[in-house]
Write a structure and sequence with these properties.
This protein has 16 helices and five strands. By secondary structure, the protein is mostly helical. The longest helix has 38 residues.
Length: 376
C-alpha cells in the first residue's frame, strides 16, 4: 500500500481550517531594538525632568550673583530719576518708604570717646585754646578752612557770657568742626556707595558694608535707591541754625546736662525729662555721652524719619540738578520738626541770614595733628 505523503501546505491548510494561525518567530533584532528605544526614551525623559527641577535653583543663583551688577544699578538709577520727576512717586517701588528703627541709632548710642576728650573745659580755657591755634570765624569765612578742634562738652559758663555775639561765636566755633566731621563721614560713605554701584562685581567686604549701611539707615528690602536718597549730607548752616534754636546758643539744660544739641525725643533709654512736661508724659529728650554723638544722631534722624521724607526728596532734586545743598531751600521742608511748623522754618531762616551761616557750607576741616591733640 502506497503511503500518502502529507505536505507542509496541507498541514498548514488543515490547521487554518481549525481556527489556528501560524506565524514566524520574530527576529531578536527587533526585540532588542525596541528595548533600546525604550531605554533612550526613559533616559531623555529623565534628563528633561532633571533640567526643569534644577533650573529654578540655577536661576536663583544667577539672580543672587547679579544683585550688585550694572543691570541692578541701572534699574536703581531709573527708579531714582522717575521719583525725582514726580512720576507716580508712591508707585515707584515705594522709594524712601518704610523704616526699620532697630539699628538706626545703634552706633550713636554706643558712641565712645577717649577719656582725655571728656573733660569739661571752661569757657576761658576754650577761648584761649582757639587763640593758641589761630582758630577764629573771620578767617574761616575767608579761607574756608576749619581747625579740627574736637570738644566733647560745652562749657558750663555759656549762660554767663553776657555778650550775645561772643556767645554765638563761641558756640559756632565749638560745633562747626563736629558738623563738618560728620558730613565728611557721610560724603565718604556716599562715594563708596556709588563706587560699588558702578562695579560689575563686588567683594564680600563690599556686600557686608552695604548690609551695615542698610541697617544704619533703616532701609527695608535692601533697596539701593532708598539708600542713595537717605545717605547724604545736611548743610552745615542748617545744622548750626537748628542747634542754635534748640539750645538757645548752647545755654539750655539739655545741652549742658545731656549734650543734646537738637532736642530729639525718645520714649526709651536714657533721656532728660522736660521741666514743663505733664506728669503722664512718657517722652524724654535724648542725652548723649559727647557732642559728636548728638550731631550724628541729628543727621541720622533727618536722613531716616518719615517726617522728613520731603526734605530728602528736595535734597535729591538739588543733587540731580547738580546744585549745591541750599539751606534756605531745604529748611522749607522742616516744618514738622517743631510744633510751630512754618513759624519754626522762618526762625531757622532768620538765624541763617542774620549770622551769615551759609559762609560755612563750603568750609573744609583741616587734618588733625599731634600738636593740636595735645592742647585739648
Amino acid at each position: 500500500m502506497k503511503k500518502n505523503k502529507t505536505t507542509f501546505i496541507e498541514i498548514r491548510k488543515y490547521i487554518k481550517e481549525k481556527g489556528f494561525i501560524l506565524s514566524k518567530k520574530q527576529n531578536n533584532y527587533f526585540k532588542d531594538n525596541n528595548l533600546n528605544v525604550l531605554s533612550r526614551t526613559f533616559l531623555s525623559s529623565l534628563v528633561i525632568i532633571s533640567f526643569f527641577f534644577v533650573m529654578p535653583t540655577i536661576i536663583q543663583f544667577i539672580n543672587e550673583k547679579a544683585l550688585l551688577s550694572k543691570e541692578f544699578k541701572n534699574n536703581s538709577k531709573n527708579n531714582f530719576k522717575k521719583t525725582l520727576s514726580g512720576k507716580n512717586i508712591n508707585k515707584q517701588s515705594k522709594l524712601d518708604d518704610g523704616l526699620n528703627k532697630k539699628y538706626v541709632f545703634e552706633d550713636v548710642l554706643n558712641f565712645e570717646d577717649p577719656p582725655s576728650n571728656s573733660v569739661r573745659l571752661s569757657a576761658l580755657t576754650i577761648e584761649q585754646l582757639f587763640k593758641d591755634t589761630n582758630y577764629n570765624l573771620k578767617d574761616v569765612r575767608k579761607q574756608k578752612l576749619v581747625k579740627p578742634v574736637s570738644l566733647s562738652l560745652l562749657p558750663q559758663e555759656m549762660k554767663m557770657i553776657e555778650s550775645s555775639q561772643k556767645r554765638k561765636e563761641l558756640f559756632i566755633q565749638i560745633i562747626l568742626p563736629l558738623v563738618i566731621k560728620e558730613n565728611n563721614y557721610i560724603r565718604l560713605d556716599r562715594n563708596k556707595l556709588f563706587s560699588i554701584l558702578n562695579k560689575s562685581n563686588n567683594t564680600k567686604e563690599e556686600k557686608k558694608w552695604l548690609g551695615k549701611k542698610f541697617k544704619q539707615y533703616g532701609v527695608l528690602n535692601k533697596d539701593l535707591s532708598t539708600l542713595k536718597i537717605r545717605m547724604d549730607e545736611i548743610p552745615t548752616s542748617l545744622t548750626i541754625a537748628q542747634a542754635a534754636k534748640e539750645t538757645g546758643w548752647g545755654t539750655s539744660r539739655f545741652a549742658l546736662e545731656g549734650n543734646a544739641l537738637f532736642g530729639q525725643w525718645t520714649w526709651s533709654g536714657e533721656g532728660i525729662k522736660p521741666a514743663g512736661a505733664d506728669d503722664d508724659s512718657t517722652h524724654k529728650v535724648m542725652k548723649f555721652k559727647v557732642l559728636q554723638a548728638s550731631v550724628k544722631a541729628y543727621q541720622r534722624n533727618l536722613n531716616t524719619h518719615s517726617s522728613y521724607s520731603n526734605f530728602r526728596i528736595a535734597r535729591a532734586e538739588l543733587r540731580d540738578k547738580k546744585r549745591a545743598l541750599d539751606s534756605m531751600i531745604l529748611s522749607e521742608y522742616l516744618d514738622k520738626y517743631a510744633e510751630t511748623g512754618k513759624e519754626y522754618v522762618k526762625i531757622l531762616q532768620k538765624i541763617i541770614r542774620q549770622n551769615k551761616l551759609r559762609d560755612f557750607d563750603d568750609a573744609k576741616l583741616l587734618p588733625s595733628s599731634i600738636e593740636l591733640d595735645s592742647l585739648i
